[in-house]
Amino acid sequence: MSAAVDVLAVMDAAARGLWVEGEPVNPYAADLISARAAVAELIEAADDLVTHAIGCEILLKVHQTETVAKAKAALARVKGGAK
Questions:
Q1: Residues with Cβ < 8 Å from 23, sequence gap 6 or more?
Q2: Residue ranges of the domains in the chain?
Q3: Average confidence (pLDDT) over 4-9
Q4: Fewer CB atoms inside 10 Å of the end CB: C or N, the chain?
């Protein structure tokens, strides 16, 4: 496994260099902001999934289904919508 990294902090630092006085200086500046939001959503969904999977011996089927659906949607978003 690779070393731990604060992905959101790295993306924030990279984004700072793509804007000058509130204007993008790189055509991918807005895409980086969208990508950061997708990664943040994925991190939250994965964290919720792990917390519920490890923290509970018995999950209510509805809650488990919602948690898995949230994680799947976040993963699909990070993959560009591919399933």
A1: none
A2: 7-78
A3: 85
A4: N
